[in-house]
Amino acid sequence: MSGRAPEIWIGEDGEALAREGARRIVEAARRAIAARGRFVLALAGGNTPRRLYQVLAHVESLDWSRIHVCFSDERMVSYDNPDSNFHMAQESLLQLVPIPPDQIHAVPIGMSVEEAAQRYDAILRALLKSEEPRLDLALLGMGADGHTASIFPGSRLLAGVDDDFLLDDSETGPLRVDVPTPSLDAYPTERLCAPVWDAPKAPKQRVTLTPYVLNLARQIIVLVAGDDKVAAVSAALESDAKVAEIPIRAIAPVTGELAWLLDRKAGRALR
């Protein structure tokens, strides 16, 4: 993992984790709105962020008229499906706050995963300001296998970082020691979104933001809770595990802030 060393915060339980995450999002929103007139937030899916969203829904001081929401990844299911990240965010947050509907940027569905990724790429490019196209804050989780968003172990999105077991593939590029530094100069040609056809758990087809656009974010919060994440947390933060084995290690912003928020169960093995 390259970039600046991340901040590590450990709370007592999931409730403390949710409240700290919400506090940081509120503070980041206030700073962004004061500096640039708006706040662009990428939401995470999964179970851990749900309570954070419920806390955030009751923060009265947020100016939702200046907040844009997008998604770090999405499963290719209907918006009313319990597996949908949009559905979870809508139920626990978005329908409870006065955010203008046209400022909620959901991943399109009802088409091939390739077309959905292309369309979401275009949606994000229209949303992000061309002179400095950066998310203000990306909220991410991590699975017990070390995946984040829908970037799983062995993903081609990690090719050319340090995944030597993919080097025989002509598309993977050369072996790298560190996570490549994202360059705004490369923005016109880099992918912001990518299709996933073969996620190791259902639903297999998904759309995900890429490490490139995530690492351009001004701030990233990785939210992790539970006993089942202990080994992955240690591998991500205290080992020299390859990015292709622990994909969260690809999240290493150079010019942005990276904070890991853990509950005591997930962080109990850290030295």
Describe the model.
It is built from six helices and nine strands, in the order βαβαββααβββαβαβ. The protein is α/β, with parallel strands linked by helices and 271 residues long. It has a single domain, classed as Rossmann fold (3-Layer(aba) Sandwich). Strands 1-9-8-5-2-3 form a six-stranded parallel sheet, covered by helices on one side. It has a three-stranded antiparallel sheet with strand order 4-7-6. Strand 2, helix 2 and strand 3 (67-71) form a beta-alpha-beta unit. The model is unreliable at 163-177 (pLDDT under 50).
End-to-end Cα distance? 17 Å
Query: Kindly state the mean pLDDT as a whole number?
Result: 91
Helix and strand composition category: alpha/beta
* Strand content range: 15-25%
Order of helices and strands: EHEHEEHHEEEHEHE
Number of helices: 6
Total domain count: 1
State the major sheet.
Answer: 6 strands, parallel
CATH fold call: Rossmann fold
Report the helical percentage.
25-40%
Shape: globular
- Low-pLDDT residue spans: 163-177
Rg computed from alpha carbons, rounded to a whole number of angstroms: 17 Å
Strand order of the largest sheet: 1-9-8-5-2-3
CATH class: Alpha Beta
CATH architecture: 3-Layer(aba) Sandwich
Question: Quick one: how many beta strands?
Answer: 9
Jot down its keywords.
six-stranded parallel beta sheet, three-stranded antiparallel beta sheet, 271 residues, alpha/beta, Rossmann fold, 25% helix, 6 helices, globular
Compact summary:
By secondary structure, the protein is an alpha/beta fold.
